[in-house]
Amino acid sequence: MKNIKSLFLSALAALSLGFASCKEEDPFLDRDVAPVLVDIVGAPFGAPIASEPTVTYSANAEKLTLSARLLELDKTNILDHTKGIDSIPVPNLSIKITLRTGAVLGEVTSDAQGLVKLEKTWADLGITAPKAGSITKISWSGSYKGIAFTRFSQVQAN
Q1: Residue 18 domain flag
Q2: Domain of life here (predicted)?
Q3: What is the pLDDT of residue 76?
Q4: HEC profile for 81-127?
């Protein structure tokens, strides 16, 4: 009886370790790290990377300037606490700005400081009569060093 209990516990422990050690790949996410940091200009500083930064504009504004800063993170000195990670602007990078519905707002190229800007109206963003709280969702997509990336953001009327 004692041997059966210890055999059963050993088998249970082996099965538990076997199941815990299996790693299942996520079929929906690729494992490439985004090569460019897309910093949405006008969003609150420190907006979490995991969330969508929201930029607010007056509902009465005639023109809205969608703007982002494109940065490459140089991690050469990541282990040196006196230097750290450096943010380098990415010039001449083509970015496609679209609504999440798929409508293309435009394609712009970053300047020497890594800035991209696109002027649109509320109607261009799909909101014909903006009122406080109106939100439209935007995608910023491009490819850098052979790796495609997309950053999401929102525009909200106040």
Answers
A1: no
A2: Bacteria
A3: 80
A4: CCCCCEEEECCCCEEEEEECCCCEEEEEECCCCCEEEEEECCCCCCC
